[in-house]
Structure formats: structure tokens, C-alpha cells
Write a structure and sequence with these properties.
The protein has twelve helices and 14 strands. By secondary structure, it is α/β, with parallel strands linked by helices. The chain folds into two domains: 3-120, NAD(P)-binding Rossmann-like Domain (Rossmann fold), CATH 3.40.50; 153-310, 2-Layer Sandwich (Dihydrodipicolinate Reductase, domain 2), CATH 3.30.360.10. The strands form two sheets. The chain has a seven-stranded parallel beta sheet. The protein has a seven-stranded mixed beta sheet with strand order 9-10-8-11-14-13-12.
Length: 343
């Protein structure tokens, strides 16, 4: 029997993806999957694609249901993780997909999420640049018992932007991100605007000028001014983000590509595409990979970096497994796919 793990909020899309990855993980053993309204239902009735787990039953999301786990994955709505983790034993390691513990700034939490701030944990993005006189993000995750995993839009933007700001080749002011996401990023709760008849054949910008991932992206990258526009697309999963910024220090398109190549050459899950190739959601489907491309806009002179990833993979469950692997002393890539699924 491997490391005993549990998933709270296992009936949602991210929770289902966690269950799928855990079922195939050679070192993790699922001891509990909890839910709210689906408590008592079989996993197969909610996630029919999980054949090996179909006869298991969702428990209610309580501390007692999670007590036998050595590591707990939380896939709960924002604002619900803090109260649960406060009563979990200290011996239990936790990876949280909610935003409850991502932000260090309590005022930013209150502004974008509302309610009391429950404190910041180690931020779960292993590929972030190492800051001067600071441990590497990877080692910080590996030595932490509580880790706040990234937001989906956030990681797509952060991986495109963070190395450039760290190297000083783009300016921290006037960063603009436009990102398109599939509908699974909005969760599984039934909503009129997510009906197929509303979504198919349409693109829909939302939370324009006030999206909650803004302070997370700024905190992780060091950007000082950020305009972020999310767009809902008629596809189940995937994110494409286009990040633009003013160049600094005489940076050229070649400079930008060199910085990204140096930052990610040894990273198993981040790939800078060959010149002329552009990221697509299809190429990252079902994987924990993020694909990047960069250029310079010939009219405005702005740096343009485009990223693509699976919002349920590197944007959610995959990144959580990556963090859990580090926290458990396992190879970071254990149980995770670099290659996507096609067609």
C-alpha cells in the first residue's frame, strides 16, 4: 500500500481529474473521496470514466472522513478550505486547489474574494524563478506540509511572464493578459450561462477588470500593473493565454526566447516550442505540460508570449499531484503525463 491520500471535493471536474491521476499513480493509495450533495453516491455514477473506482462511494466532507489519510487534496470552492484545514491534524499534509491560502496580502484577499483571510501557505508552482537569498520554489514545496496550488489562469500567465520579469527583459508595469478557457474551469454546478445552447458557437468575456487571479499573478511574478481579461470558449477543457509587456533593457525577440529557453530547458513540464510554432489546447490535452511561444509585435514593439495548458491538468489536478510528489519525496514526474492526447 502506498501513501494514503484523500480527495475532498471529489465530485467536481478537478476532483474527478485528481481521482483519475491517483488511480494510475504507482505510489498513492486512495482512502477517501468526499463530496457535498453527492455524498452517498458511487463514484461511477458521477465520474463514469473512472471504471476502476466505479464502485467506491463518496463520503461526506468531514475531518473524520479524511482522518486516515497521510496527504489530503482539497478541491473545494474558494473560501471553504480554511475552516477544514484548521481542524485537520498537523501530521496530515495538504495540497489546496482553492485560493484560501495563496495570497500573502490580506487586503488583496478581501478585495477580490471577500471574507476573512486565513493566511498564506507555500505557493505551489515549482517552476517559478528562484529569488535572491531565497530557497528555490521547488525545495520550499518539498519541505512544506501545507501547499497552496496555483489557479488555472494564473499558472498559464505566470509561466509565460515570471522568467522575463526576473531577468529584467520586460517592464513590470502595463502587463496585459487575455486568456481563453474551456467551460470546465467554471466548475460543475449547473448554471444557465454554461448550458450548451448558451456556450456553443460563442465566446464570452467575464469578470472583466476584476478577476480574482490578478493578485495571484502579480504576487508570483512581481508585475506591478496587470490588466487581465478572461474569455469563456466552447470547449470542455484547455487554456490559451496571451501575455504582453513592454520590453526593457533593449531586449529583442531573440533575447526573450533565450531567457525562456534557459528558464525551462530542464523543466519536465514546460516546453518552449520551436520558432514559428504556436501553442494549442489540443496539444496539451490530458497532460501536465505547458507549451510556450514568444515573439515581438512588429507594430507596437511589445513582447508577446502565448501559453497553452490543460486547465484540469497543469492548471489544477496535475499541478497538485506534482506538488504532492515533491512533498512526499517522490520523483516530481511520478504518475504525470508529459505527452497530450490526440485527436
Amino acid at each position: 500500500m502506498g501513501l494514503r491520500v484523500a480527495v475532498a471535493g471529489a465530485s467536481g471536474y478537478a476532483g474527478g481529474e485528481l481521482l483519475r491521476l491517483i488511480a494510475e499513480h504507482p505510489e498513492f493509495s486512495l482512502v477517501a473521496a468526499t463530496a457535498h450533495t453527492q455524498a452517498g453516491a458511487t463514484l461511477g455514477s458521477v465520474h463514469p470514466h473512472l471504471a476502476s473506482l466505479a464502485d467506491r462511494t463518496f463520503a461526506e466532507t468531514t475531518p473524520a472522513a479524511l482522518a486516515d489519510a497521510e496527504l489530503v487534496f482539497l478541491a473545494l470552492p474558494h473560501g471553504q478550505s480554511g475552516a477544514l484545514t484548521a481542524v485537520l491534524p498537523e501530521r496530515v499534509k495538504v495540497v489546496d486547489l482553492g485560493a484560501d491560502h495563496r495570497l500573502r496580502d490580506a487586503a488583496a484577499w478581501e478585495r477580490y474574494y471577500g471574507g476573512p483571510h486565513t493566511g498564506a501557505w507555500t505557493y505551489g508552482c515549482a517552476e517559478l524563478p528562484t529569488l535572491p537569498d531565497q530557497p528555490s520554489p521547488r525545495s520550499a514545496i518539498a519541505t512544506s506540509a501545507r501547499v497552496a496550488s496555483t489557479g488555472c489562469y494564473a499558472v498559464a500567465s505566470i509561466l509565460a511572464l515570471a522568467p522575463l520579469l526576473a531577468a529584467g527583459v520586460v517592464e513590470a508595469d502595463d502587463v496585459v493578459v487575455v486568456a481563453v478557457s474551456g467551460t470546465s474551469g467554471a466548475g460543475r454546478a449547473p448554471k444557465p450561462n454554461l448550458l450548451a445552447t448558451e456556450v456553443m458557437g460563442s465566446l464570452w468575456p467575464y469578470k472583466v477588470g476584476s478577476h480574482q487571479h490578478v493578485p495571484e499573478i502579480k504576487q508570483a511574478t512581481g508585475a506591478r500593473s496587470l490588466s487581465f481579461t478572461p474569455v469563456l470558449a466552447p470547449l470542455p477543457r484547455g487554456i490559451v493565454a496571451t501575455v504582453t509587456a513592454r520590453p526593457a533593457g533593449g531586449a529583442t525577440a531573440e533575447t526573450i526566447r533565450e531567457v525562456l529557453a534557459e528558464a525551462y530547458t530542464a523543466e519536465p513540464f514546460v516546453r518552449l516550442l520551436p520558432a514559428g510554432g504556436w501553442p494549442s489546447t489540443a496539444a496539451t490535452l490530458g497532460s501536465n505540460s505547458c507549451h510556450l511561444q514568444a515573439t515581438m509585435d512588429i507594430d507596437s514593439g511589445r513582447v508577446v508570449v502565448t501559453s497553452a495548458l490543460d486547465n484540469l491538468g497543469k492548471g489544477a489536478a496535475g499541478n497538485m499531484i506534482q506538488c504532492a510528489n515533491l512533498m512526499s519525496g517522490l520523483a516530481e514526474t511520478t504518475g504525470l503525463a508529459v505527452n497530450g492526447v490526440a485527436p
